[in-house]
Amino acid sequence: MVTLEKIREDMKRRLELDKELHMVDVHADTIDEALADAAVQLDTKVSNLQYEVVEKGSDGFLGMGKKPWFLKIYQNPDTLKKATKLASDGLNIDEDEETIAQNSSRDGLFYVRHFSSDIVIKVIPPQGNGLPIDIKDVMAELHRSDTLELDESLVRKYVKNGTDGQYNVVGSYKHVAAGDVLVSVDCTKDEMKGSIIVAAPSMSGADASPELIIRALKSQSVIDECIDINKINEFVDNPIYNIPFEVAAAIPPVDGRDAYLSYNFETDPKKLKAQVSEDGSINYKQWNQIQNVIAGQPLATKIRPERGKGGKTIFGRYLEAKNGKDMQVVLGANVSLDRDGVTVKADIDGEVMLVNGKITVEPVKFLDAVNVKTGDIKFIGTVIIKGSVEDGYSVEATNIEVNGIVDKSQLIATGNIIVRQGIFGKGEGYIRAGKSLWAKFINDTKVEVEENIIVNDSIVNSNVTAMKNIILRGKKAQIIGGHLMATEEICARKVGSPGGGTETILEAGVDPRAKNRLITLQKKQTDVSREYENNELDIQNLEQQKKLRKRLPQEKEDKLTNLKRRNKLIAEESEAMAKEIDKIQEHLRELKAVGKVKVEDIVYAGVKVYVRDVLDEVKMDVKGVTFYYDKSFIKRGEYEPPAYKIEDPDGYTTN
């Protein structure tokens, strides 16, 4: 029962809250703009605000007679009370933290409404650490002077368990139809939005139910697809009277997407970054600035245009959408469209890039130098370097041309390599070419090529192998120190040095790769044979001990087992190596290339010349000589010019 004392207490509590309220008067074109303005002035969120309409605004007609909204806006007393309590406790909570807390914890909510002649209730249970619903508060709202019947046990059940978001009947009241809410519908002239304006019910009148609002909308020809049931439920839960509330919206047309190219490579060079290792460190030698592709590789796909999807106004009038525009794929150099008409593919190996908006594959990469600015280079094509390759960097490509010096670095090409100035390997440089190598000089470097090596000046203290010819030409054309191997010919003006201070070994008429493999196998065979013999001695010693003592300690027994197992593996490895050695030796014996070493000027004493594995160690200086193989012997004859016709690569000059 509501007593005078209870009313007095409620009024006193409300007065205390009102004293703490800070209200601002706001004029704005729309309610949303007014709330945003007030949120700034009151230093809170829009969701924490409540307002009263002092004067209703109007859009006017064609901009004439426009009238702003006039609202009195204040913070929700509940949020204000919460903020005050936190401040008194020395705490502060920002907007984001509060939002997270609200999402994880929420107080219980209940709504009491009067639909037709029924009393209905909607209960949302608390969430997380939210406060539960007080049954007394619910009963206080349900017990009105016009209440006829109320099922309190059902109410308690719903308060405890919730109503699954629905309004459920819990009683009846004395309904006076004249006091019902009045629902009017206001639709914009462009038929894009529909709002309801609801007049508040009087005592014993019915509240606005979802069904009532929907009937009102349909009576104005608003179609079902455009009615927002969530907005309607929001209004029913928290009605705003005498103010337009949007509950229907047109289905806007969706224009079709234009055709576009979906690229399979990074089109913005600035986004290409250095390689990052597993520990997070950056390898500044691997900048990954080159995007390599091979012939036939898909580079991009044209995504066809989409058809637009039409919309509807709230009255069902069709809203036309634009179809996406098609596009013509403009191709750059060395690319083409596949047979499907939409896939752009590479015609050649090289670097893919956008040139003036066109997909292009460049077969040649031009660089000023290879250093810390470029990092290591890997390119499926020809790399032309204007300057030098600095210490510690590598270049891997199809063909490589260096106009400067190659320092202690690594060049690997599947085709030709040209070094216009020369190579300073410093004992660690490495050059490998799938075809031929041209260089001014080679110094202290390991070189392996599949065809010919043509040097203009000298080869000094280098380990050089060629599957065809090694030819030095020019004024010096000198070989000093190192080990050179060629299948066909080695040609130079001078070989060795006066006094023979540096060992110089030349081998011709052999397969360098097979010869090197033979040397490796023979060394390994010697090593494993020595290990086998040592193991045999240990095995014999352990077996003798076992024979005398009848048994061995477990540790020695395990050792004996392991030694026998190891020697069995060595025997198998030795047998396989012996077969491979025999095969290589047979290959070297049957090699068709006769092999010659040709020296135009002088061979200094101390030089060792092998032709088909037969040694001729030069004891005294000799001039104008050709070393050749004849009937199992190495012989010397008059100097012969190189049999190989030297051809320079394009643009290469001997100077």
Write a compact overview of the structure shown.
The chain is of the alpha/beta class and 655 residues long.
List the SSEs and their pairings.
Blueprint (H helix, E strand, L loop, with lengths): L3 H17 L3 E5 L2 H12 L6 E7 L13 E7 L1 H12 L6 H10 L4 E7 L2 E7 L10 H8 L4 E4 L1 H10 L6 E6 L8 E6 L5 E7 L10 H10 L9 H9 L7 E5 L10 E4 L11 E2 L5 E2 L8 E2 L4 E6 L7 E2 L5 E2 L15 E3 L5 E4 L3 E6 L2 E5 L1 E4 L9 E2 L3 E4 L8 E4 L1 E4 L2 E2 L3 E4 L3 E3 L2 E12 L3 E13 L3 E14 L2 E4 L5 E9 L2 E7 L8 E5 L3 H38 L4 H36 L6 E8 L4 E4 L2 E4 L4 E9 L2 E6 L17
Parallel strand pairs: 22-24, 23-25, 24-26, 25-28, 26-29, 27-30, 28-30, 29-31, 30-31, 31-32, 32-33, 32-34, 33-35, 34-35, 34-36, 35-37, 36-38
Antiparallel strand pairs: 1-3, 2-3, 4-5, 5-7, 6-7, 8-9, 9-10, 11-15, 12-13, 14-20, 15-19, 16-17, 18-19, 20-21, 37-40, 38-39, 40-41
Helix pairs in contact: 9-10
Report on the architecture of this protein:
The chain has 655 residues and is α/β, with parallel strands linked by helices. Helix content is 25%, strand content 34%. The chain has ten helices and 41 strands. The strands form eight sheets. The protein has a 20-stranded mixed beta sheet that branches. The chain has a four-stranded antiparallel beta sheet with strand order 4-5-7-6, covered by helices on one side. It has a four-stranded antiparallel beta sheet with strand order 11-15-19-18, with no helix packed on it. Strand 40 (622-630) and strand 41 form a beta hairpin. Helix 9 runs antiparallel to helix 10. The N and C termini lie far apart (117 Å).
